[in-house]
Amino acid sequence: MRNRQIALIVLATVFLWNTALSQNKYVGVKACRPCHFTEKQGKQFDIWSKSKHAGAYKTLATDKANEIAKARGLTKPAAESPECLECHTITADAKLVEKTFDMKEGVQCETCHGAGSGYKTMPIMKDRAKAIAAGMREFKDEAAIEAFCRTCHNERSPSFKEFNFKESWDKIKHPVPKAG
C-alpha cells in the first residue's frame, strides 16, 4: 500500500512538473467544440458562436475599423495592427499554436480559459482541479471575471461604449448544467 502511494505521488509530481515546464499551445475553438456543444455541457459552443466574441476578428476587416485605425495613427489595417488584434483575437507566436487554431475565429474559448493543449483531453477536463493544474485559467468569482473582461472592454478602445458587465455577462456566460 505504501509503495502504491509513493508511486502515485511520484507520477503526480512528474505530471505537474511536465505541465509546468511545457508551455501550453492554443488549440482553437474547433478543438473545443466536440465536447462543448451538447445539452449536457450547456451548449457552450452555441453560446459562443452566436456572440459578438465569435465575430470580433471579422469586425477588424471592415472599412469602419480601418478608418478608426487610421484616425488613431496606426500604419497598418486594423486586422493587422497589434493594437486592435490584442482584443479582437488571440495573437500568439507560431510555436504556441496547433494546426487546429485559427486566429480569425475571434475572441474564442482560450482567450478567457487559457491555451488548451494541456487540459483539452477528456480525462483532464472531467476533473476541474486537474484542468486548472494543467493550465486552464480559473476565475474564483464574477469579480475576477469582470476584471478580466475589462482588460479589453475599457476606455482604451476607440469604439468604447459604457460596459455593463452584468448585462454582458448574462449574454455570454456558459456554465455546465448541474447533473440532475
Write the layout of secondary structure elements.
Blueprint: H1 2-21, H2 29-32, H3 44-49, H4 56-59, H5 63-71, H6 82-88, H7 109-113, H8 122-125, H9 128-133, H10 142-149, H11 165-172
Please characterize this protein's 3D structure.
- By secondary structure, this protein is mostly helical.
- The chain is 45% helix and 0% strand.
- Biggest sheet record: none
* N-to-C SSE string, H for helix and E for strand: HHHHHHHHHHH
**What global shape is seen?**
globular
Structure classification: mainly alpha
Radius of gyration, taken over Cα atoms and rounded to an integer in Å: 19 Å
Helix content: 40-55%
**How confident overall, as mean pLDDT?**
89
Oligomeric state: single chain
Task: Please state roughly what percent of the residues sit in beta strands, choosing from under 5%, 5-15%, 15-25%, 25-35%, 35-45% or over 45%.
Answer: under 5%
E-strand count: 0
Distance between the termini: 36 Å
Task: Give the helix tally.
Answer: 11
Contiguous uncertain segments of 5+ residues: 10-14, 17-21
